[in-house]
Write a structure and sequence with these properties.
Blueprint (H helix, E strand, L loop, with lengths): L1 E8 L2 H13 L6 E8 L2 H4 L11 E4 L17 H11 L5 E5 L13 H4 L4 E4 L9 H19 L5 H7 L7 H7 L2 H6 L4 H12 L6 E2 L1 H8 L3 H4 L2 H6 L16 E2 H9 L4 H4 L3 H12 L19 E2 L6 E2 L4 E3 L13 E3 H6 L10 H9 L5
Parallel strand pairs: 1-2, 1-3, 3-4, 4-5
Antiparallel strand pairs: 6-7, 8-9, 10-11
Length: 364
């Protein structure tokens, strides 16, 4: 299958180098074809995007370099991506730039302005030998959008089919879905991709990344990643669009798979206690319980937003860091992170949480 990529940059050496690196990683399944376009052509050739049918657009952020004719584009990559989004509502747009682009004075931090961009990836990550994850990601997002583009009609039932959702998750999926799209009863590829990637797959609660899945089951990440455990929970794995980006598992299916062979005593316990009892009773290879990073209590019940390590509810506080739907797990920060990390934003705790921090002397 051919995947056509438009790559915009204002430095010809970068266009040649990184464009070639992408094409060199074509495989027997996916032929990556990169059309390299110098940034100033967007200004000099207004119709340059006409008759283009890309599967993916990569855009550099910095367009301050002067071209061979002494001209500059006069806009940054975010502004350029907003122009691309108006023409291509069905194509992924990735800011493809160098670290640390966010620290530039001209980088916009307004979420509404950045909403047109699907993601940001770094040029440095395309350099071998550590490039396979980025290539995998580029293929995944291009294929995911293609599946969304091609699916007709664009209604709720077909969207549920595209994410291969289990029936047990239907109700919570509807509660996480944008109201305006639900009222219209239709969606564009960009709208669907934004919901899937930036809500469903981003926030834990309906599907879980490995550390969240492990903690939900009451076991350590190392235990969850054992081959026998991975095979056991394979029926709960997320196989919908964009599944190649990261491994994830449906929460409701984790419950179903874990409980299918438990005895009545184990089923009556919280899952994080019952599953490990079942497994250690029936398997030679024992699993270790998840342990709170603040105190050695187990099994842990949540994952610290900052450290991404297990924590107890009683040793963590609600962190109002984003506007995730209420059906998702709330973001929490462990007492350990509050005591030891410099990136804790205390404005994101409510008054009750700040009072607890003060009373427990978690921060001087």
């Amino acid at each position: 299958m051919d995947l056509n990529i438009l790559y915009f940059d204002d430095e010809q050496p970068d266009l040649d180098r990184f464009g070639s690196l992408i094409e060199e990683n074509s495989s027997s399944h996916y032929n990556l074809i990169v059309e390299k376009i110098i940034g100033t052509k967007v200004k000099k050739t207004p119709n340059i995007l006409d008759n283009k049918s890309p599967d993916l657009i990569l855009a550099d952020f910095d367009y301050s370099h002067v071209d061979s004719e002494g001209d500059v584009l006069g806009m940054n990559g975010v502004t350029l991506s907003n122009l691309f989004r108006q023409k291509f509502s069905h194509v992924p747009i990735v800011l493809f730039t160098r670290k640390p682009y966010e620290q530039r004075a001209d980088f916009p931090h307004n979420e509404a302005i950045l909403a047109c961009i699907d993601d940001t990836k770094y040029k440095e990550d395309l350099i071998p030998p550590n490039h396979s994850n980025l290539i995998r990601y580029l293929i995944s997002i291009a294929l995911g959008y293609k599946k969304l583009r091609d699916k007709e009609p664009k209604n709720w039932d077909n969207l549920i089919a595209l994410i291969s959702a289990p029936e047990s998750s239907y109700d919570v999926l509807k509660m996480s879905y944008p109201i305006e799209q639900a009222k219209r009863k239709t969606w564009t590829a960009f709208e669907a991709a934004t919901w899937i990637r930036k809500t469903l797959l981003k926030f834990p609660g309906i599907v879980y990344e490995p550390v969240f899945a492990a903690t939900y089951l009451g076991i350590t990440l190392d235990s969850f990643q054992l081959p026998e455990v991975q095979t056991f929970f394979n029926p709960a794995r997320y196989y919908g669009v964009f599944s190649d980006e990261n491994d994830r598992w449906w929460k409701t299916k984790l419950i179903e798979v874990a409980a299918q062979n438990m005895d009545e005593t184990e089923k009556n316990l919280p899952l994080r206690k019952g599953f490990i009892k079942y497994w250690n009773r029936t398997h030679l290879q024992k699993l270790a319980p998840s342990v709170c990073e603040f105190k050695d209590d187990s099994p842990a019940e949540t994952v610290c937003y900052l450290s991404q390590r297990p924590a107890m509810l009683k040793y963590s506080l609600h962190y109002h860091v984003d506007t995730r739907p209420e059906v998702m797990d709330e973001a929490r920060v462990s007492f350990r992170s509050i005591k030891t990390r410099d990136d804790v934003n205390f404005d994101l705790f409510d008054e009750v949480a700040r009072d607890i921090i003060k009373k427990r002397n978690l921060k001087p």
